[in-house]
Every structure is written in C-alpha cells, then in structure tokens.
Amino acid sequence: MDKYMEEVVKKYLITRKYGCFISAVLESEHLVQIDIEQDRSRIDRKEKAEKQEQIVELEQTAKLGDIFIGKVKNIVPNIQAAFIEIGEKQKGYLSLEKLKQPIFLNPKKNQEVHQGDELLVQISKEAVKTKPVNLTIHLNFTGRYVVLTYGKTMIGISSKIKEKTERKRLYKLLEPYKNEEYGFILRTNAVNALDSEIVAEIDRLRKEYKKVRQKAEYSACFSCVFEAPEHFITDIRDSRKKQSLEIITDDRQIYERVMNYLESFQPEDKEKLRFYQDSMICLWNLYGLEAKLEKALRQKVWLPSGAYLVIEPTEALTVIDVNSGKAVGKKKDTEAAYYKINLEAAKEIAVQIRLRNLSGVILVDFIDMEEEKNTNALVSFFAEKLAKDPIKANFIDMTALHLAEITRKKVRKPLYEQIRLFQIEEDKNKEKK
What sign does the CA torsion over 263, 269, 270, 274 have? Predict the structure, then answer.
C-alpha cells in the first residue's frame, strides 16, 4: 500500500442544520472530526445591517483565509504588534516582526506600518474567546498540490515527503518559478503527481493572486477582496489522493457546490460524491450526529478498561488528566496495569484532540509509572498516534512534573467555540416555531 494512503475507509458527511454547515469525518463508523460553520450566503445585506451586533459576535465576516483591506487602528510597540480594523467594530492582531513587503493601498514613502495605513491582510487564525483573529500580510493561496506564499519567496517541500529523488524532482520543477515577490510550498499530495498537474495549479494560483491585487486597487477600505472556500471544500481539497473516501450530503446546494469544485479541480474524485435521499430520515439523524456532537463535548471520556479522561480546556492551554477509575481495583501488578491504561489513554487522547480541535499547548497527566522503559515506550506510542493528525501535532517532552507536553497548530476554532454558532441558530429556530 502507498505510504501516503489512508488505511481506513472514510466517510465525509456534509449537511445543513439551523443555518450552519455540519461536516463530519467517520473512520470505520467512528467520529474523528466534526466542524460547524455558519452559512454566510444566507445573510443578506439588510439582515447584516439590522443585526450587526450579533454578526460581529459570531465573526461571520472574518473566516480563516479571507483577505481584507484593513486599516491600522493602533500600534503597540512593546509587543511589536498592530491592531487592524477589517470591518465595523471588527479588528485583528498583526505581528510586526519579520514583515516583508506589506501591500499598502495608500501612498507610501517606505515599508513601515503606521497608524491609518490601509493594507491587505489575511485571516491566519480564527478568533478564540477574548482573542481577536490573527492576521498576516503574507498572503497564502492554497491548492491541492501547491501553496503560493506572497512575501515568502523560498521554495519549500512538505516534511512528510521523505524520498530524496521525489524532493529533488519537485524542487527542480518549481525552480523556474522563483521570483522576488512570492514563493511556493509543495504539499504532500504533490507526491507522484504529474508535472502537468502541478504546473497547471501554479498557473491558476498566480492568476488568483494577481486578480486579488487588481481587485484591491479599486475596492474600498474594509472590503473582502478574497473569500476563502467553505471548510467542507478545503477539507476535500486537503484529503489525501487515492484514499478511500466517500463524500455524502443530503443538501442539493451543497451537492452542487462540491460537484462544481470536483469537476473543476479534482475530476478524478467525482465518483466519491453521493447525494443521499430519504424522506423518512435525514443524514443528521441517520448517523446520530446530535448524540455524537454532545458526546464530543463532555468533560469526562470513559475508556474501555474502566479508566477515564478529564479534559479541561482553558484560554491559555488544555489540561487532560488520566484516571485509573475502575480499571485497577485489587490487581497485584499495578505497574503493568498503569502501563496498559496509559497506552489506552494515549490512543484516545490523540482521537479527542482532533475531534475537539484542541490546539496550542496541551498538558497530559498520565498515571505515574516507576519503570523508565514503560515511560519511554508510552512516549514513543503517543508520538506515533499524534503524527497521524492531519493538523501538525508534536510531542515536546515530559516536564519535570512528569506531565506530557504537546503542541498542536492553531487553525480553526475549537469545537466548544464552534458550537456557539449552532446553539444560537438553534435557539432562533425554536423561537420562530
């Protein structure tokens, strides 16, 4: 089997509920990922004007990957950062360190960022709780094989591509495209892709970038000059080539949106898309997504052995505690029992981190073991499970207090934040009834 292929059959479910897109990934019928995203197309301008406060609260106009013409509200020198307005009562955080070639929309004599400047910014991280969205001036345009990176002019290759001959081939293919304005990163899907496929995508991304630059020249401040695709489209785009994936939706508009995308960019995957029709039971109920969603937000997670996890997300970090529960009892060999529980917990924690979309710093308090060989084996096993996460997750170290420290890249909101959108829309729907 190709080492880049997934070993399990996946189902990617996409449905619509209470004005939100719900997308869920099932592996062997087990839920491993769920995302909730508001359907922005259903909000017309009149509704935006009437409900501006609620829209600001829900950040409907600031989605990951969107590009805005922002205005510098103020600069905070001691943290080398600026706060940028991207809409009425909406602002984001921009680090001023290592800025290269900001795209200003107002006349400038130098490349320094000052209060009142108008410049192109992209949402690089979604807002979480009290923290505003993170912004970057290094615009990214992502395809299935390649990412065009404005302001970062190197040619990069995914670290998951290990073969030296393949890395050499890909670098040689992109070398003629090197320039002083933007660079490219080859994604894992570029492995064994045809040269013609990669080159065609490069040309498309360059045109997309130039189109955004031209649009920005004639657009007003706070305009969104590039709207990122919905999460369910980017998830399909980012799926591994040749993996066993079935895409199922019961919404006609979603079906047409996905089919249009596949026909344009992934025609080889059209056969994976299926439209589910059943007047008796919808996709949401067929797969019990409401119960699965509720379970994914519980603080306590039981393990098959009778042990359990306690998951406590905070604004600064997430703490996960492993408890023996009913698993040990009067067993004589507690070291072996603790080792078995810790392995079971490590496997489930890797699943829960992805399912809940936990990110940043995560500390895990495993059950203490006396034998160093068991601790080393646990660390190796845990790191192996974390490496399977589609979002970069790294095991850092065991701290002096014997806590496992891991980090996971922050991209989308955690699930406990996403659920707010769903609950607000659900309450509105109930009020109408």
Answer: negative
Partnered with residue 77 across adjacent β-strands are none
Length of the chain: 433
Residue 202: φ, ψ to 5°:
-60, -45
67, β-bridge pairs: 122, 226
* Nearest-angstrom CA–CA distance, 277 and 274: 10
* Helices first, then strands: H and E counts in the chain: 11, 21
Phi-psi region of 129 (alpha: psi -120 to 50; beta: other; left: phi over 0): left
Task: Give 12's pLDDT tier (boundaries 50, 70, 90).
Answer: very high
Contacting residues for 48 by C-beta, under 8 A, at least 6 apart: 55
* Dist. CA 118–CA 84, nearest whole Å: 9
**Alpha-carbon span 381 to 165, nearest angstrom:** 30
Q: What is the mean pLDDT of residues 391-410?
A: 91
Residue 358's SS3 state is coil
Q: What is the pLDDT of residue 170?
A: 95
What is the pTM assigned to this prediction? 0.85
Neighbour-count burial of 28, counting CB atoms closer than 10 A to its CB (0-12 exposed, 13-18 middle, 19+ buried):
exposed
Residue-level pLDDT at 4: 39
Tens-place pLDDT, residues 298-318? 999 999 989 999 999 988 899
Dig out the tokens for 50 from the structure. 């009437």
For 201-228, how does the pLDDT look when each residue is reduced to its tens digit (9 = 90+)? 999 999 999 999 999 999 999 999 999 9
93 is written with which tokens? 């955080």
Q: CA torsion, points 427, 58, 56, 64, in degrees to nearest 10?
A: -160
Interacting residues of 137 by C-beta distance below 8 A, sequence separation 6+: 94, 99, 101, 102, 103, 119, 120, 121, 122, 151
Cα 347 to Cα 124, 180, 189, 313, 415: the distances in Å are 30, 45, 26, 19, 20
Separation CA 320–CA 367 (nearest Å): 11
The tokens 């379970």 sit on which residue? 295
Residue 332's pLDDT band (cuts 50, 70, 90): low
User: Which has the closest alpha carbon to 236: 143, 353, 161, 354?
Assistant: 143
Strands (E), 66-197: 67-76, 81-87, 90-95, 118-125, 133-136, 140-142, 146-150, 155-157, 182-186
**Closest listed residue to residue 22, CA positions, set 297, 422, 430:** 422
